[in-house]
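Hi R.,

Here's the chain you asked about this morning:
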Amino acid sequence: MISQIENNTVAPNEQYSRLASDTQIMRTAQSLEAHGIHAIIAANGEETRTKLLELLPEGAEVFLGSSDTVKELGLKEIVDNSERFNSVRVRLAKMDSSTQNREMIKMGAVPEYIIGSVQAVTEDGSVVIASNTGSQLAPYAASAAHVIWVVGSQKIVRTLEEGFERVYQYALPLEDARLMKEYGMRSSVNKMLIIHKEVIPGRTTIILVKEKLGF
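And here is the predicted structure, written out as tokens:
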């Protein structure tokens, strides 16, 4: 049963910070493949960046998510601060939200490639994404042409129920603390997306990394 934490100041449940074993990672990758989600296994952040760049054609339109995983990997330097790709965030930064808000929302919803992370992946091949605003859920679910998720192996869980527990007992308290420190505001899980299968061949890829990344 999903039980949302009302007081986000509770300490995160550290059992959900443990890295998965090689056996668990391989089992998860095989399950994802069976569900139409291409799974790549990387040993560390450096290998992840190499494999990620192999997935992105030169000049591709790319929208970087705002996840801590993306920040930790330094993907902003690769995508937003280079001329190799057509960065959606760079284009959005040049627009006026007071007069172009609808156009900006549409641009973020339908990129050619979106790169981000998730909160949990089950060993039998389901993916859990929790969100405060829901802005990343539409492109993840259907509207982006290609989805790439980079996922530290501590996010692998046995079941969907454990995935929900990981969201509320681990990811939410950490994200809440981050937002309070940086912006003086609280976080909450207002919207959630569960993906059991990708129906469009080649659309979605997960890079499972054998180290701790993000929440």
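One quick note: The domain at 15-209 is CATH 3.40.50.10420 (Rossmann fold).

Cheers,
M.
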